[in-house]
Amino acid sequence: MSLRHYCLAVAAGLLVASGARAVDLHGSPVVLVANPEMGEFYRNTVLFARPVGGGRHIGFIVNRPTQVTLASLFPGHAPSQKLTDPVFLGGPLHTDSVFAVVHRSEHPGGRSLQLATDMFLVMDGETVDRVIEQNRNDARFYAGLVLWRSGELESELQRGFWYALDHDTGVVFRKQTEGLWEELVRRSSRRML
8-192 maps to which CATH number? Predict the structure, then answer.
């Protein structure tokens, strides 16, 4: 896998869509907690989701660290060797691409999508390289994403697949994600009482 290999067509489409009026759940990003009944790929997952316009959403799984590091993916890239944190499995789509989620208020440049006031998704190789070199302590790296078609996430919520919580950057950048799903299921269940 190359840091330069990215789905630029998808990235360009998302950047264009982000300029449009977002039609979404509540007009802002959310944290999604998989219902305990959820099976298959999303069992016991916590996701971040953000509207991108036209009823579509983009997101990633925040509690699925892999055994892979950037150092092992890119042995010839010296700055990657300094990162020992795992790459997270962000979702089932575009798993052959590495994305960076950066915790900052300023736009990191390149093909980046603002996820929240203090968080950006970086989608192009050159900017991901720069994040690895300059901002690695304020970033998390993902292989893959989740994309919802128009109305798909709303339908999933109506069918009870997810609990939706207010966006929390602390959840996204939490160092230890073990037990996160259980904690948020308890929190969600209390809110429903």
Answer: 3.40.1740.10
Domain ranges for the chain? 8-192
pTM: 0.82
Can you give the length of the chain in residues?
193
Three-state secondary structure string covering the chain: CCCCCCCHHHHHHHHHHHCCCCCCCCCCCEEEEECCCCCHHHCCCEEEEEEEECCEEEEEECCCEEEEEHHHHCCCCHHHHCCCCEEEECCCEEEEEEEEEECCCCCCCCCEEEEECCEEEECCHHHHHHHHHHCHHHEEEEEEEEEECCCHHHHHHHCCCEEEEECCHHHHCCCCCCCHHHHHHHHHHHHHC
Other Cβ atoms within 10 Å of 168 Cβ, number = 15
Q: What are phi and psi of 191, to 5 degrees?
A: -65, -25
Q: Strand 93-102 to strand 119-122: parallel, antiparallel, or no bridges (unpaired)? A: antiparallel
pLDDT mean values, one per 10 residues, the chain (193 residues):
30 29 56 91 96 92 96 91 93 94 93 94 93 89 96 92 90 93 86 51
Output the pLDDT for position 166: 86
pLDDT score, position 32: 95
> Tokens 């390289």 belong to which residue?
129
Which of these, 165, 138, 128, 159, lies nearest to 25 by C-alpha position? Answer: 165
